[in-house]
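ERR on first pass: missing label on line 2. Operator R.T. fixed the label and resubmitted. Corrected input:
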Amino acid sequence: MAASDAPFIFIALIAPFLAAVAAPALTRVLGHWAALPLALVPAGIFAFFCRALGDVAGGQAFTGGYLWVPSFNVSYSWLIDGLSLTFVLLISGIGALILLYAGGYLKGHPQQGRFFSFILMFMGSMLGVVVSDSFLMLFIYWELTSITSFLLIGFDHSREASRRAAIQALVVTGGGGLALLAGLILVWNVTGVSTISLLIEYAPALKASPYYFAALLLILGGAFTKSAQFPFHFWLPNAMEAPTPVSAYLHSATMVKAGVFLLMRLQPAFGDTAPWETILPVFGGATLLAGTVIGLRQTDLKLMLAYTTVASLGLLVMMTGFGTPHALESAALYLVAHALFKGALFMVAGAVDHEAGTRDITRLGGLWRAMPVTFAAAMLAALSMGGLPPFLGFLAKEEVYEALAGGNPRAIAFTLAAVIGNGLMFALAFAVALKPFVGAERPLPGPHHGSEAGTEAGAPPSALPGTSPARGEIGQRHPPHIHEAPFLMLIGPVVLAISGLMAGIFSGAFHAAISAPMASAIAHEAREITISAIPHLSLPFALSLATIALGVIVYLLLDRAREAAAAALESIGWGPDQGFDQAMRGLIRGAHLVTTRIQAGRLETYIMVVFITIAAALLLPMAIFSEWPTWPAWPADAGFHELVIFAIAVIGLFAVVVAGDRLTAIVSLGIQGFSVAVIFMLYGAPDLAFTQFMVETLSVVILALVMTRLDLQPSDHRHGRELVKDAIIALACGVGFAALLLRAVQAPFNTSLTDFFNAWSKVVAHGSNVVNVIIVDFRGTDTLGEIAVVTITGLAILALIRIRGTGTVKPADNDPERSA
Amino acid sequence: MDTSGTGRSARRGMDTLIFRTMAPYLTALMVLFSVFVLLRGHNEPGGGFIGGLIAASAFAILGIASGVSAVRRALWFDPITIAAAGLAASALAGIVSLFADVPFMTALWVFPNIFGTEVALSTPMLFDIGVYLVVTGAITAIALALEEREDD
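pass 2 clean. output:
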């Protein structure tokens, strides 16, 4: 890979979005086989970036890009080193497998094309996040992943649980994204650099800055929400509402790793400080323990996997911030291992659900006979997740223990957390990969295919086992024939599980190509990884044995462990998930309170407020700054015709006030308007006069028509105090406008604009009517905005008239109490 | 004034034979005049906005005299569609500049010689025609919707 590859890198980065555009049409033509051509896109990206492996392993980093907003020093620029390259390969490689898997999983679903489109868009966003060098580009792609994951989680949008999970994920991760933006801008201001590759050089200045801690907290706000760290972990299990390919992709390998990626990326700039090495391990460790304990109580395969993902993310954050030798290497190893085994296990869970019709572990059993390939893939992935040699997971766990083990109290506490967490994850891994396949065969609901998959794939993944008893009964009446998952759904788990095994066996080559360059990029110095799959007697190995022993014990006592975890969690009662609902309810209630207070729904009140504001805006500044106009002198040379026109205007006004009914008042107002137009004409403003004539005519016509339409009382209904109050407001507005105009005329007139337009109108714009030239040429963009407003206003008025005409459309009821 | 409502009496007042006979001719003249005002606007008083107001008044008058359905038939297009087309024309006038590698909304002029007469054509002219259509369409849409009644 060389500098001349820049255009190809750009093409690789936008290719998923282009494929997303083509996906629906392609799916209409090819059906679920559209997965094959679409998977070629990420596969091609994977192959393209594999060419960079050699150079990156040699310690090279590629930067490049294009200017985006040069005036703000914003660029579209990428940084491809060991860290981003590993992520790019994971995203594109697993992405290709997921597309194939989704082709089988959602076969026959009416919205399969849309699903492909969403997941490709997500892929493009995620690729953008990991290669971004520029802060702003990173933020935009970061928020794009939030938006696309919202679309994916809420894919089955006819179910309320999906919609709630989608909104929750969007609020939590999108809100965290805003914190990230604030943090990046703060860093930008402190250091003056706007790219990550430069920021690393400015790390000492950043760490010395008084704003370091604030910037760190804001960036952690982004990373912790995205990577589901405690106490923001709740959105990830809820996101299991999404179809399983989404969970396998976003919630194991990619999206949730974005937060960890950010921490790793910024480690050279932010790391190696006391706050970094305190906050990260503490929150990471808490997340690890919380994730495994809550995971224990679940009976739904996907939820068990989701909580172990939370726990793994906690472990990754803990290791990224631990700050001892081997800690960053272990994080790099564990990240790759986790992406491989968790992606495989999610796809296995989806295959089991797809064929057996349920994901409830208490109802599944004996499937190995019917689904041998799925079972084999599940076992390979679980062995890696459990950390048994010679799998990659074993290497990662040994490296974790190597980094943690030490004599000081801090090391002992975190080692204990890691052993307990890993032990429980071991138990959960085999609960997912072994329990459904061994034991006695049970009556099961059976496969669901075709359009059914859309509604059933995400069937309540809930903490309430047996939410679909009806289907269980059907299954008992007609024993279904359960068979192996279709070919498209087997490629993914098998390839990923075998990759985990191969990486462990050929650890030398794997370290050289992937994990060592990745760890070097995180540490920003050359690192080597030597750990291999051959067990050797040492403290980490002893800790591994303890972990496995704990895992086996918990697995054997799984039902009792589940009850214990459930009892412990129920005694706490409240969790952040409920807290989110309470916060959202409070927000809606608050908004409703403010709205009912401000929007009372009476037109008279609105108009009164508007006019009082206008009068105040006109009169108060003049009163406060004593800028009243001087009383104008009576013009001595006023001609008779001018006086007559003036008199007609005054008579028109008088007629408005005394008019007995509304129509007379409207027409009388027209008299005043025409007189003013004539005055414009006399004083040399033909354009203005012309417009005024037409506006007056149309106003009278339209006002008269409105009267007809609204069937108003023909005469005024106001009396006494109301009349006095309105008269005062009207007078204040009139006096205010008059005073403003007089004052404006009395101020010295700056003619530079007039001179400019007079001088240049004919020369550069070929027009001698200066007014028109300003409207259509000099300030054309303003006019474009104005005519857009005119069009929209026309549409809005049409809608209002039609609602009024039929009288059947009621305004929405926004009261949260009643709608709930 | 009668008590049945201001509007109905107003309508009856304008509903005379002379008015109904004259209105189509008046409307035709006004629309012609509005186009004249639109096209002269760059050098003499006038322009798309005023022209649009005149055309809208013309259709409002025709609507009062001959009924809304007659105006809708005469216009052929829905008035709000005319407004949208005008907005699109104006936006297009700005976008054309981008293809000439100058900033958005920069005026471009050509002076072709048609039958021996030099004619000035420009993106501001297209823009002004867009303004004319927006004003005509939006106000006619409102006026016609207000004139429309169940018995029309």
